[in-house]
Amino acid sequence: MILHPANRRRIMSLVMVAVASLPGLRAATDAEILRGYQDRQQEVLAASVAAIDPADPAKGSHFDVAACLQRDVKREAALARFMRLTSGKQDGNMFWMFPMVTVMMNGGKTLDAAARARIAELWRTYWPSRGDTENHWAMYYSSLYLAAQYAPGAGPEQWFNGRSSAENLAEARGYLEHWMDVTVTHGQGEYDSPNYIEEYVIALSLLAGWAEDVPLRLRAHQLLDYIIYDYAVESLDGYYGGAHSRIYPRQIVSPGQTPSQALAWLLFGFGERVQSGTVQLLALSGYTPPPILERIARDRSHPYVERELKRTRWRMRHAGPDSFVVGDKRTVPVYKYTYVDPDFVLGSSQGGLLQPIQQQTWSLIWKTDLPAKRAANTFFGTQPYSSPLEGTMFFNSDWDTVTDLIARSKADYDTPDKLPGGSRYEQISQQGAALVALYDIPAGSRFPLVTVFFSRDLKQVEEDASGWIFAQGGPAYIAYRPFAAGEWKPNDWTGLLRGGAGGFISTGFSDWGTGHRCYVSSALRNGYVVQVAPRRDFASYDAFKAAVRALPLRFSVAAVPEATFTTLDGHVVRARYGETPAVNGQAVDYPHWPLFDSPFGQSARGSRQLEIRHGADRLLLDFNHNARTESAVSTQP
Amino acid sequence: MIRRALLLLALLGSASVAVAATPASRLYAAVAMTKAQRNSPTPLDSGIYVRDAAGQWTLFGPRILGVLSVARSPSHPEVMLLASADGVVRTADGGRTWRKTTGWEVADVRAFAYDAGNPDQVYAATAWGPLRSTDGGATWTLAQAGLDRLFCQTLVADTTKPGRVLLGLEHGLAVSTDGARSWQRVAFPDVTVLRLVQSAADPRLLLAATQGRGAWLSRDGGATWTATDPGSATANLYTATLAPQDPARMAVGGWGAGVRVSTDGGATWTDRTAGLPVRNVFVVAFDPDVRGRLWASTFEEGTFYSDDLGVTWRDGGLYGAYAYDFVFLPGR
C-alpha cells in the first residue's frame, strides 16, 4: 500500500502523539505538536473543499465555500453555492452573521460582482437581532465588526440598522473590549459550557483570524488561548469535566457528543473528526494553539485541583443580596472547584441559580474506552427546579409566560425528570474527590425532588446495607450516600424526550438516552455524599467499599440539612445548608477565590493576567498590556 | 368630525354607544407571534403591526425581535421610536428608513414617554435602567442616578409638569423632577410595577398595574397611592388604561384576571372577561377616537374590542400574537 504524503504525515503525527502520551515516554516536542495540529487543520480544509460539488450547487455550507475561496479552488462552484445559500429569505440572526462573514473574509475583494452585490444587499435588508445571551452578543459583535471592516466606507443607507460602517465598527469594538475585560477581570458569565464553548471559539477565531486592527486581533488571540486553556485544564481525553453554565439533555448524559469534543480533535488530537462548522471556522482562521495547551490537555500524570472564579449571567431582577455590580449590571460570583484525576474529573460549583435553564452544578466524568458517540461516562445530581423567578431573573419576559416560552425551545425545562438545571435549593461543598450536597426544598415547590443520574455505563451498582450505593465508572470507583430514601426510575420517565419533544434537543434519543436510570428522592430536606476514587488506589472493589463504609459520616435532615464527612484522603468537610462550608475546621475562603488556580495556571482576581504553566514552559496572557509572552525556556527536547 | 361625534354623544347622555367616525389616529401594536412557536426560541414574527381602516394588520417598520412599544414625537410626527431588544430604533421620515440610535450598552427597551415641556426630551424604560434623550431620541444617555435596582418597564412623563417623570421599578416607584437626571423613591409598596398610566382627562389621576398586588390609584399626581379593585388585589396585572375622555372610566387586565372595568373612578370594578376566549390579558386600551371603545389583547388568542365597555366583544384580529403594547398615534 502506498500512502499519500499527507496521510503519512498524519499517521506519523498520531504515532508521535500516542507515544508522547504513554507514561514514561518522552513528551512531544513543540514542532511535533504543531505539525499534528497543522495536519488536522489541513484535513478539515480538504474535507471542506471536497464538500463543494461543481455538479450540484445544493451541496456545501458557507464554511465549505469559504475553504474553496481561501484555497482558490473550485471557485466558480463555491460562488454558485454561495449564491444559492443566500437566495430567498434569510434568518438565524447572529447565526446567520458569522457564516456570512466567514465567506466575506475568505473571499475578500476577489469575490465576483454578483457575490459582492448579494452581500451588500443582505446586510442592507436583513436585520439580524443581537439576541440575549453572552454568546449571542460575542458572535453578533465580532461578525458586525468584520462586516464593517469589509466595507469601510459604507454609509448608514447601506446597513440594516441605519448606522455607517464606522459607527458599527466602533459599537462592535466597544462591546468586544468591554466583554473581554469583564471576562478576564470577573470571570466568564456563560462559563465552561461543553455546548457553547464553540460560540466563543467562533467569535474569537473570527477576530483572531481577520481583524485588521492589530491590538484587537492580538487580544482576541489571547482570549482564545485563555478559553481553550479554561477547557483543557478541566478535560480528560477531551471530555469536558466539572460544573458547566449550560448543557443540553443529550450532552449531559453523553459527554462525548459535545461541541467541545469536536474541538478537542482539532485542538489536541483526541477522538475522531466530526462534522462541525466551528471546527471548520477555527481551521480557516489560521489560529494555532500554543503547544503548552495540548500538553496541559494531555498531562494527567498526577491528580490536581483546579479552582476557578466565574460569574452568573447578568441578573436584571431578583439579583439577591449576594450580587455585586460590574458597570451597571448585577451578577453573583460562581466558585468552581474541580478535582482532576488521571482517570476521572469531579467538579462542582457552589449551587444556587447561577445560570438560566441549563446549569450543571456538579458532575463526574471518567476515562472510557467507548467511542465518544456511545459513551455515557458521567454521574451527577440535580434538583429539578423551574420557576418564573428564574426566568425573569435572566430574561426580559413576563412572569406568567416566561416558563412556557422557555419550554417552547428547551422542552425539558419544566419537567420533573429533567437533568440539566440549577436550583435555588441546592448547596454543594467539594473537597478533593468527595462532595457533600444539601437541599432544603420548600413545601409546594414545583418539582420537590432530588435526582441522581446513574448511567448505563456504570458497572456493579450495589445498594449496600450501610446506606451507601456503590458503582464503578470505568477506572473510577463511586460511592454515593443519600440522606433520604429514594426510588429508582428510568431517566426521562415522563417520556418527553423519548417522544421527540424539543426538536433537536431530543434527536437520537434512542441512541444516547436509553438504558439509564435515576435515583429519585422526594424528601424536602435532603442531601448526599459522593466519594470517588481511582481503581488503581485499591486492591479490589470490596476494598474500596470497606474503606468508604469506615469513613466517619454524620448527617441530619431533621431540621436544617447538615453533614460532616471525613473523606478518603482524611479531610473533614462540614456543611450546613445556608452557611459557608468548612474543611478541616476552616471556612472555605470564597472571598479570596482566584480566577484560576492549579498547577497549570494562575490568575489572581482583578489581575487581568493568566500565567499558564507546564513544566518549565510559561505562557503569560497579559490583558493589561495586550501582551502574550511565551517563555523561551523549555524543558522539552 | 370626532369632536362633533363626541359632542353628540355627550348630548345624548349615552355612555356605551360607540360612534363610527373617521379615526384621527391609528392603532399600532407591538407583538410577537408566539402561538405557533415550537422547538425554537424565536417567534414566527415580531415587530410593530398597524391596523388599517379595514381592520387589517400589517407589519410596520423593521422586523426585529423583542419590539415592545412604539412612540411618535409630539412635535415632529415623522419621527417615531421603536422599543426593541436591540435598543431604540428611530425613523425621522415616517418609517421610510430606520436607524438604531443606541449603542451596545442599551438593550431590552420597553417604553417611551415624551416630556411635557420639551418634545425633544424623551425618556425610555429598559430592563437594565432608564434612559433620557434631549434630541428627540437621536442620541441617548443612561439615567440611573439615585437608583439602586435598575429594572423598569413602564414610565409616565407628567403632562402637567415639565421634567417630572414617574418610573415603575422592580421595587416600587421612583420620581424625577429634573428630567430623569436624578430619581427619588415614591411611597409605594415594594412590588414590581408593570404598567403606569396617566389620565388625559384629569392628569392628577394615575393608575398602576403591579405584579401580585393588583391595581393602585393616585389622585394627586403620583404622590400618594391607594389600592383599588379588591377583586384583582393579588393578581399579576400587566396593563392599565384610563379613558381619555372620561376620568371615571378605567380598566386593568392581567393573567387570570381577565379584563376589569370601572366606570366610577375606581370605586367599583366589574369583571368584563366574558366573551373573551381566555382570562389571560396583556393589553387593555381605550380608543381615543371612539368613545367607549375598549381594546383587549389576550395571550395568543387574539385581540378584541368592545363598544360597550366589555359587555360584549368583537374580534379585532392578531390571533396567535403575544401583544405587549397598543399605542394610538395621531395621523392616518
SSE arrangement:
The complex is a heterodimer of chains A (637) and B (332).
Chain A: H1 5-21, H2 30-51, H3 62-71, H4 75-85, H5 94-107, H6 113-125, H7 134-150, H8 165-186, H9 197-210, H10 214-232, E1 235-236, E2 239-240, H11 249-253, H12 259-268, H13 277-285, H14 291-298, E3 304-311, E4 324-326, E5 329-331, E6 333-340, E7 344-348, E8 362-366, E9 378-382, H15 388-394, H16 402-409, E10 426-431, E11 434-440, E12 450-454, E13 459-463, E14 469-473, E15 476-482, E16 487-490, H17 509-512, E17 517-521, E18 525-534, H18 541-549, E19 553-556, E20 562-566, E21 572-576, E22 582-583, E23 586-587, E24 596-598, E25 601-603, E26 609-614, E27 617-622, E28 627-630
Chain B: H1 2-12, E1 25-33, E2 46-51, E3 57-60, E4 69-72, E5 80-84, E6 87-91, E7 99-100, E8 109-114, E9 122-126, E10 131-133, E11 141-142, E12 152-157, E13 165-169, E14 172-176, E15 184-186, E16 193-198, E17 206-210, E18 215-218, E19 226-228, E20 237-242, E21 250-254, E22 258-262, E23 270-271, E24 281-286, E25 294-298, E26 303-306, E27 314-317, E28 321-330
Antiparallel strand pairs in B: 1-2, 1-28, 2-3, 4-5, 5-6, 6-7, 8-9, 9-10, 10-11, 12-13, 13-14, 14-15, 16-17, 17-18, 18-19, 20-21, 21-22, 22-23, 24-25, 25-26, 26-27
Task: Give the N-to-C terminal Cα separation of chain A.
Answer: 33 Å
Structural class, from helix and strand content of chain B?
Answer: mainly beta
- Counted beta strands of chain B: 28
Strand content bin of chain A: 15-25%
Portion in beta strands of chain B: 35-45%
Q: Which strand order does the major sheet of chain A show?
A: 16-17-12-9-8-7-6-3-24-25-26-27-28
